[in-house]
Amino acid sequence: MVSLNDIIKAGDRMAAMPASVARVTSMLATGKTDPEELSGIIKSDEVLTAAVLRRANSVAFGSAGKVFDLRQSVVRLGTKNLTHVIMEQKATDVFGDSGSAFGLARGSLWRSGVGGAVGAELIAKKAAPADADLAYVAGLLRDIGKIALDAFFGDHYFKLLAPHSDPTRSFVEVERLALGFDHAHVGQAMAQKWGLPERLSNAIRHHHEPPGPGEERHDILNDLVHAADAVCLWAGLAVGHDGMAYTLAPHVRESLGLTRHEAEREIAHVWTEVRSIEQSLNAPVAQEKSA
Amino acid sequence: MASVLPSSPAREIVGRVTVGVADLQVSSDPHAHIITHALGSCIGVTVYDPVARVAGMLHFMLPSGRDNEEKARANPAMFGDTGVPQLFRLAYELGAVKDRLVVCAAGGAEVMNDCGQFKIGTRNRTILRQLFWKNNILLAADETGGTISRTMQINIADGRVTIRHKGQETLLWSA
């Protein structure tokens, strides 16, 4: 029987937490961003420097026809946007080419991560503004467990799950029947190993099955990431072999005050934002893969 | 994103054409096939005129652009109620005739236990039925609903439509 530790070791070999992501996560979690330090992180990394220049000079940022150098770009973007550029760019390293174990094309996990970040932050701004920054990070990293499972099992993963698949079971239930744990458990263990804040690792753990109000470990951050995950599914950002085999926690609509119309606006917004970020970062566009 | 805007003439595409999410393509190249991947709650719609040998495919994400008017103007293919008319218009521009069109659909899956809260896949299926009902269009074949993801493909040479799920291909429509 494969143990959670075996999977985590495989994940460690495949993906390391970039120091810049750890540092920016810490800033966002504590609400203490340091513009000087952000500039230092950007200047020490050529890829990040290029990403900041592209974002500041992008049409999406209203900069058509103007050209800003790095110093001007840093000022123009401001600390919040700089943290996002760093996280979104470095997340391409975190997710790498992972995804084939889940029937996902290269780039899909990154794309879904960015969609989760944008979606969770957007919903949080209305429902829990104090948690917006943490929701952004949790949405981005919610599927890191898939990296480790991908590294350990590769394409064999679905053969392993197949005997347990059943239309009445959610995908995470199938994973637990096959392994004893699911990709959200693996993600939590990786987050703990990377030293991420506890609320963040718990949100990764509960992003498919958030405890309801009154239950132990209920946290609105979990609800935000859960809702953002559903938004990404509806936006078609990472629909793999798992399809739509996930449940929606009944309490989340009420806890977040999310109406059907708002959800549809958010789905359209998230999809549009991800496309825009993809273009501004020159990120590898997800190559589609057959279901 | 739709590659052809409403006012633009339909363009020719050669070879394998991939339709992304919120995207549509039409072609009259008999050597081409059109494919879209990972249909979850989104719906793929194909049209085929066996005489003009024109085919098209739409992959729409949401039922209606009414709550997202700006986005619907920028990208009609994102929504069923703007994307479907756009698909038909572009097929007509390449010589397709409504009465000859073979129309198929796939996707519209739903998350499990939605508790009747959002029903995106179901509402995508409903808007499609309403549009076709109002315009006297019959679906020749469809495979929609459930919780699975699907890949849909149409070959322009013969209009054959196939669906792929977890590596297994099934025939949805052939002449």
What does it look like?
The complex is a heterodimer of chains A (291) and B (175). Chain A has 291 residues and is mainly α. Chain A contains 15 helices and no strands. The radius of gyration of chain A is 18 Å and the shape is globular. The mean pLDDT of chain A is 90. A five-stranded mixed beta sheet of chain B has the order 1-3-8-9-10, with no helix packed on it. Chain B has a five-stranded mixed beta sheet with strand order 2-5-4-6-7, with helices on one face. The radius of gyration of chain B is 15 Å and the shape is globular. In chain B, a hairpin with a 4-residue loop joins strand 4 and strand 5 (54-60). Chain B has a domain at 1-6 and 15-104 and 151-175: 60s Ribosomal Protein L30, Chain: A (2-Layer Sandwich), CATH 3.30.1330.200. Chain B has three helices and ten strands; from the N terminus they run βββββααβαββββ. Chain B is an alpha+beta fold. The A-B interface holds A 103, 105, 158, 167, 170, 230, 233-237, 239-248, 250, 253, 260-261, 263-265, 267-268, 271-272, 275, 288-291 and B 1, 18, 20-22, 36-42, 59, 61-63, 67-68, 71, 78, 109-115, 117-121, 146-151, 164-167.
Name of the CATH superfamily of the domain at 4-15 and 97-281 in chain A: Hypothetical protein af1432
The first-level CATH class name of the domain at 1-6 and 15-104 and 151-175 in chain B? Alpha Beta
The CATH architecture of the domain at 1-6 and 15-104 and 151-175 in chain B comes to 2-Layer Sandwich
Helix/strand order of chain B = EEEEEHHEHEEEE
- End-to-end CA span of chain B: 30 Å
- Summarize model confidence as the mean pLDDT of chain A: 90
So what's the overall shape of chain B?
globular
Structural class computed from helices and strand pairing of chain A:
mainly alpha
Q: Roughly how much helix do the residues of chain A carry, as a percent range? A: 55-70%
Structural class of chain B: alpha+beta
Q: Give, in spatial order, the strands making up the sheet with the most strands of chain B.
A: 1-3-8-9-10
Largest beta-sheet characterization of chain A: none
Proper CATH architecture of the domain at 4-15 and 97-281 in chain A: Orthogonal Bundle
Radius of gyration of chain B: 15 Å
How many strands in all of chain B? Answer: 10
